[in-house]
Design a protein that fits this description.
Largest sheet of chain B: 8 strands, mixed
Number of helices of chain B: 6
Structural class of chain B: alpha/beta
Distance between the termini of chain A: 14 Å
Strand order of the largest sheet of chain A: 1-3-4-5-6-9-10-11
Number of strands of chain A: 11
Strand content of chain A: 15-25%
Oligomer: heterodimer
Order of helices and strands of chain B: EHEHEHHEHEEEEEEEEEEH
Strand content of chain B: 25-35%
Radius of gyration of chain A: 17 Å
Radius of gyration of chain B: 16 Å
Strand order of the largest sheet of chain B: 2-1-3-4-14-13-12-9
Structural class of chain A: alpha/beta
Shape of chain A: globular
Helix content of chain A: 25-40%
Largest interface: A-B, 34 and 38 residues
Number of helices of chain A: 10
CATH superfamily of chain B: Class I glutamine amidotransferase (GATase) domain
Number of domains of chain B: 1
Helix content of chain B: 25-40%
CATH topology of chain B: Rossmann fold
Number of strands of chain B: 14
Shape of chain B: globular
Chain lengths: ~250, ~210
């Protein structure tokens, strides 16, 4: 049986972790590779690096990071943040990423998803969607860290990018992100039920029950969280045990 | 001893290269080389064929490199050296790929590759993530790997083997999904051993020490 994935996300700027594990003894807590190894050992199902200050000038640091992580961690790695072109995808895949995530570039030009999927296959193309509730049962895409509305309906956009070739959707509810109030369940379910590809729920996890709700009520195939793992509130093992107790299949070995 | 990973511009070989290098170092299996050079393949002691994307594109990618396919066939059929296919590299072991169009594979494992159609409509395609293996046949490459061990899958098409004896392991995803196949000196995994942590690294080590 396929297992529900638990994915810790590390925010990275200029090759350094700005929000990451701070509950274990690391020689260099700012080194993303050390953090990745800690999560690898802890039983995380995948890893996600998000380049939060991506600029053209500092792309090289992310390639180097992907390379060093792939040398140490034999588990799937997704990299996002500042990915604009097919060439960006190619460089990240060659460096060692397994999946690459488009965000605002896909909003500006959904066909970039098609060009990347045609070239490298849907299995490695993720589209990250940042959405906010604008009316009951209605969600809109926001870009630029949730500050800029686009007028684009999130569910329609999700369907569009999957048609273009996205193999997975990383869905963040911007009105929940950082609140610890739990996932935006109606949004998550609306998109998970609308597309045939896996949806990763993100944004708002504060308790282990929130992870369970994302799957049982939100219909997500995977759950992504940052703070609860980084600050040691819960371990990956505790999260998995809690989900297993709720009847969700998780990978325990 | 040399193991070649065949590079025909099909996706990311970096993690596969690193995983094989690590296990080769641990088991004393010699060097691991990433190459598309037919002469290097012709001299190899082991061959690993990865593959990401669509079956027809992978098949054409291989055939686009002059002499490469001939070198692989010669190595496997005439010299009988150990061969491991991964993901689409595994799918190409069979007779027919039926993704978008009908394309012939190497034909070493009779069968075909067709779209996954889970009997539960709520199951997503691609089949993406960790699934547990059910071991169907004893095989040296599976030493230390047991039913219940997890492997990382990412695929929308799967192989159906004609001969049940060629099925070494499967996973369940709304019905059985072929996970590992093998015959004579040829094995293949639908999942990515280089992404499958303990069980994957064990399988790689086993392959590097396999003497069929």
């Amino acid at each position: 049986m396929l297992k529900t994935r638990i994915i810790p996300c590390l925010d990275v700027a200029d090759g350094r972790v700005v929000k990451g594990v701070n509950f274990v003894d690391l020689v260099d807590a700012g080194d993303p590779v050390e953090q990745a190894q800690a999560y690898d050992a802890a039983g995380a199902d995948e890893l996600c690096f998000l380049d939060i200050h991506a600029t053209h000038e500092n792309r090289g640091t992310m390639y180097d990071l992907a390379t060093r992580t792939a040398e140490q961690c034999f588990m799937p790695l997704t990299i996002g943040g500042g990915v604009r072109t097919v060439e960006d995808v190619r460089n990240l895949l060659l460096a060692g990423a397994d999946k690459v995530s488009f965000n605002s570039a896909a909003v500006a030009d959904p066909d970039v998803v098609a060009r990347a999927a045609d070239k490298f296959g849907s299995q490695c193309i993720v589209v990250a969607i940042d959405a906010k509730t604008v009316a009951p049962g209605k969600w809109e895409i926001f870009t630029h860290g949730g500050r800029r509305p686009t007028g684009i309906d999130a569910v329609a956009f999700a369907k569009t990018v999957v048609t273009k070739g996205a193999g997975e959707i990383l869905l963040t509810s911007m009105d929940r992100d950082g609140t610890k109030q739990g996932f935006n369940i109606p949004l998550t379910r609306a998109i998970a039920d609308a597309v045939p590809v896996p949806v990763i729920a993100s944004g708002g996890v504060g308790t282990l029950d929130h992870l369970v709700e994302g799957v049982t009520e939100g219909h997500a195939s995977a759950v992504l969280a940052a703070s609860i793992f980084h600050f040691g509130t819960y371990s990956i093992a505790e999260a998995k045990a809690h989900m297993a107790a709720a009847g969700i299949p998780v990978r325990l070995n | 001893m040399s193991t070649v990973l065949i590079d025909y511009d099909s996706g990311n070989l970096h993690s596969a290269e690193k995983a094989f290098q690590r296990m080769a170092a641990e088991t004393g299996a010699g060097k691991v080389v990433v190459t598309a050079d037919p002469d290097t393949v012709a001299r190899a002691d082991r061959i690993v064929l990865p593959g990401d994307g669509a079956f027809p594109a992978c098949r054409r990618g291989l055939q686009a490199i002059d002499g490469l396919e001939e070198a692989i066939v010669e190595a496997v059929e005439a010299r009988g050296i150990p061969f491991l296919g991964i993901c689409v590299g595994m799918q190409m072991l069979t007779t027919w790929g039926r993704e978008y169009e009908d394309v012939r594979g190497f034909g070493w494992i009779p069968g075909e590759v067709t779209r996954i159609t889970p009997d539960d409509p709520s199951l997503k395609v691609p089949h993406m993530g960790w699934n547990d293996l059910v071991i169907d046949s004893v095989h040296p490459v599976l030493a230390g790997i047991e039913t219940g061990d997890h492997a990382y899958f990412v695929h929308s098409y799967a192989m159906r083997v004609t001969e049940p004896a060629h099925l070494l392991a499967h996973a369940d995803y709304g019905g059985p999904v072929t996970a590992i196949v093998g015959t004579r000196n040829v094995v293949g995994t639908q999942f990515h051993p280089e992404k499958s942590q303990r069980a994957g690294l064990r399988l790689i080590a086993n392959f590097l020490g396999w003497r069929p």
